[in-house]
Amino acid sequence: MTRILVLGSVNLDYSASVSRLPVPGETITGATLERIPGGKGANQALAAQRLGASVQLIAAVGNDANADDALCLLRAAGVDLSRCVVKVEVPTGVALICVAASGENHIVVAPGANAMLSPADFELPDADAMICQLEVPIATILSVVDEFAGFFCVNLAPAREIDDAVLKRADLLVVNETEAAWYGARLDLCSGFIATTLGANGAQLTQRGIELARVRAPAVEVVDSTGAGDAFTAALTIALVEGMAPAAALTSACAAGALATTKRGAQPSLPTRAQLEAFT
Ligand code: RIB
Asked: How far is the CA of 226 from the centre of ligand 1 (A)?
């Protein structure tokens, strides 16, 4: 079984479904609110576990009631949470999300305990692959760059200033189009794979400036795109680590991302391996 280590965030998502996204200064009423487990780290950990990997999550939550709600689906799925620490006097991370009828969203994150996750909080276990995103301190990600020996994936989301060492170390970088534009030529520091998600247009996989694969997104009825990038990142990492060829791996990741848009919320929609295989 593929062993995946995820270093990342845990949030409780307050997700409001609205007819359309508000413009600045506008109030829209009539929304339906749900509290749903989220956070890019937690989502990617759960996605990997549902896809058949054995997953450990390194993360921080607050000493509050939201922590249990944020971790409940990870616990139910059997993700190893023994390296999740509790920070006193800070709340569990919260994301405020607006989801339009089109499935598009706006997300604002109040990181809370995620911003307190420090290298002193954990020892690094062995694993086949590690996945990081940028919702925890960059210094904490930097601390594992030299120590972790396996396949190293960094989802550069949300786009933030990051040390060159992280870009150079990555075996796989995952960006969306906005993030790709934000990092620009700095992505060339990576000699591993670079996966760029293109929304409804699918995704592209390159290495050293050469396109290895480009895949169209499968047609699905989009309900909520929250967490689609997380499903994509986990699925692509697992496929590449398990030795799948680049084009097949990208196809599998696009299918996982598409399936993740078909239900409300980030975590409830993450597909299992059986659902993914039935779909592809
Ligand atoms: O990638 C989706 C996630 O981003 C949401 O679950 C939210 O918590 C934010 O971190």
From this structure: 7
The per-residue b/e assignment along 222-248, b for 16 or more CB within 10 angstroms, e otherwise, is bbbbbbbbbbbbbbbbbbbbeebebee
Average pLDDT over residues 112-123: 97
pLDDT of 103 over the 90 cut: no
Q: Are 51 and 276 in contact (CB under 8 A)?
A: yes
Q: What is the mean pLDDT of residues 258-265?
A: 96
Model confidence at 17: pLDDT above 90:
yes
Rounded average pLDDT over 134-152 = 97
CA distances from 270 to 39, 98, 121, 274 (A): 13, 19, 28, 12
| Beta partners for residue 35, in sequence order | 14
Active-site hit among 13, 171, 224, 230? 230
Interatomic CA distance for residues 256 and 132, integer angstroms: 18
Q: How far apart are CA 176 and CA 155, in angstroms?
A: 9
Q: Is 43's C-beta closer than 6 angstroms to any atom of ligand 1? A: yes
Whether 200 shows a pLDDT value over 90: the answer reads no
Residue 95 Cβ inside 6 Å of ligand 1? The answer reads: yes
Atom of ligand 1 nearest to the CA of 267: 6
Q: Does ligand 1 lie within 6 Å of residue 38's CB atom?
A: yes
171 is catalytic: no
**pTM confidence score:** 0.97
226 touches ligand 1 (CB under 6 Å): yes
15 CA to centre of ligand 1 in angstroms: 10
